[in-house]
Amino acid sequence: MISTMKHPSAWIPVAMSLIAFAVVMVHGFMFGFVREADEETAAHIWQILMALQIPIVIFFAVKWLPSTQKQALQVLALQAGAYLLSLAAVFYLESRS
């Protein structure tokens, strides 16, 4: 899996999810975890980061699943986990407010 993670299409979606998670957390700690009437810049950055990684993941799957199936599935699981972490943070924080 480590050799597969060296490819940008493998690690960029993970990095984007972690950055999106960090954006949510930093915004929450700076301005409070409250529901706002208007979405701010942090929400838009989160949405862009989450949406832009979908085509990258699809590209990764199309390119690497046929040749390195086991490693590609491990990377896809890591990508999905990072994506779900960021989603879970947003949904959890929305349910609290």
Contiguous helical run count: 4
Instruction: Give the overall silhouette.
Output: elongated
What number is the mean pLDDT?
89
Q: How many separate domains?
A: 1
Question: Unreliable segments (pLDDT under 50, ≥5 consecutive)?
Answer: none
Elements, N to C (H/E): HHHH
**What's the helical proportion of residues?**
over 70%
The biggest beta sheet reads:
none
Report the structural category: mainly alpha
Structural Rg: 15 Å
Strand % is under 5%
Count the E strands: 0
Summarize the structure in words:
- 82% of the residues lie in helices and 0% in strands.
- It is mainly α and 97 residues long.
- It has one domain (2-96).
- α2 (8-31) packs parallel to α4 (69-96) and α3 (41-64) packs antiparallel against α4.
- The model has no long low-confidence stretch (mean pLDDT 89).
What are the defining features of this structure?
97 residues; mainly alpha
